[in-house]
Amino acid sequence: MSTHHAAARRHLLEQGRARGLYSGAAWSLGDANGPYDRGWTGTRADGGAPLDGADLWDLASVTKPIVGLVVMALVERGVLGLDDTVGHHLDRYRDSPHAALTLAQLLDHTSGLPGGVPLYREHPTRESLLTALGTLECAAAPGTHVAYSSQGFILLGLIAEQATGRSLDALVTELVSTPLGLADLCFRPGPEQRARAVATEDCPWRGRTVTGEVHDENAVVLGGVAGHAGLFATLTDMERLARSLLGGGPPMLAPDTLALMTAPRTDHLNLRRALAWQGTDPHTSPVGDSFGPASYGHTGFTGTSLWIDPEAARYAILLTNRVHPDRAERGFAPLRREFHTVPVRP
């Protein structure tokens, strides 16, 4: 690892903090054996405690591929099938427009379900929100268009729970956290973890700065445990996850299952997607063009991302609180691309 490049990356992230893009950032770049550049800069909140590396980050939509790993583990065990339908598993949606949607369509965002619908505004309880989810109109015929949909992953979480008789948080613990030794990956952090949490938004809806509680409002109404958002983790947790995906830690999935999950599925459509992962499309990739065509990853609204390049055998993790103190766009997306394009080797 070039010390020059590591210094350039740190300087970039320190400048991002100075520009007010976030109060803090943590990062790691490495391979199956571990990190070769990692660090953190800034504070857990504006005027708050300095980051110390044990900080707990709201992963936001990086929750989705982790829930996807749970779903694929259940597929591998024969509990679920990619061609299973929503109506087959969830009685409440058996007569809904979504009954015929398949798990594969939910996972690769070709279900036609709309994306960031603020259901919480008119449906303040879990029951009313789930009922409203069943009445959403699809924007496209299933399988014809990629449209990023958190609502589809809410359904996936419910299906995993129904098929196993276990809660989604228990499934994440059993199938991801415990095998990989992820000490802090969790929904609904406890008091000790909340004391290490990085603040997100000064939320108008809640009337306070959110710290150690899921930022996503629909996830709040669902109780903090949902398929689309709600997981928290430390930098160390994310490094262990990345190493496992590169074959450097205990495997969560058989190699053939992971290959199936991460292979591009929608190149004939408008965007590149895999099962629960975003593919590296050179025109739309949030990490620029430095990751190869077989790369996959995911971003989160709070300013988080995980990216894997299996051909180059490397990963990149960036954790920030770019929604602190508010969610106004201040230029974070260009900084994220630049972070990923700083060379990693001499």
Produce a short descriptive summary.
This protein has helices at residues 3-18, 63-76, 86-89, 103-107, 126-133, 150-164, 168-180, 191-194, 217-221, 235-245, 255-262, 332-341; strands at 24-31, 34-42, 57-58, 186-187, 199-203, 208-211, 231-233, 278-279, 296-300, 304-309, 314-320. It is α+β, with helices and mostly antiparallel strands.
Write the layout of secondary structure elements.
Elements: H1 3-18, E1 24-31, E2 34-42, E3 57-58, H2 63-76, H3 86-89, H4 103-107, H5 126-133, H6 150-164, H7 168-180, E4 186-187, H8 191-194, E5 199-203, E6 208-211, H9 217-221, E7 231-233, H10 235-245, H11 255-262, E8 278-279, E9 296-300, E10 304-309, E11 314-320, H12 332-341
Antiparallel strand pairs: 1-2, 1-11, 3-7, 4-7, 5-6, 8-9, 9-10, 10-11
Helix pairs in contact: 1-12, 2-6, 2-7
For this entry, give a set of tags.
single chain, 346 residues, alpha+beta, 3-stranded antiparallel β-sheet, 11 strands
- Radius of gyration (CA) equals 19 Å
Element pattern in H and E: HEEEHHHHHHEHEEHEHHEEEEH
Helical stretch count? 12
What's the end-to-end separation, in Å?
6 Å
Strands of the biggest beta sheet: in what spatial order?
A: 2-1-11-10-9-8
> What structural category characterises the helix and strand content?
alpha+beta
Q: How many beta-strand elements? A: 11
Q: What average pLDDT do the residues reach?
A: 96
Give the fraction of residues assigned to helices: 25-40%
Main beta sheet strand tally, sense and closure = 6 strands, antiparallel
Low-pLDDT stretches: none
Report the portion of residues in β strands: 15-25%
Gross morphology? globular
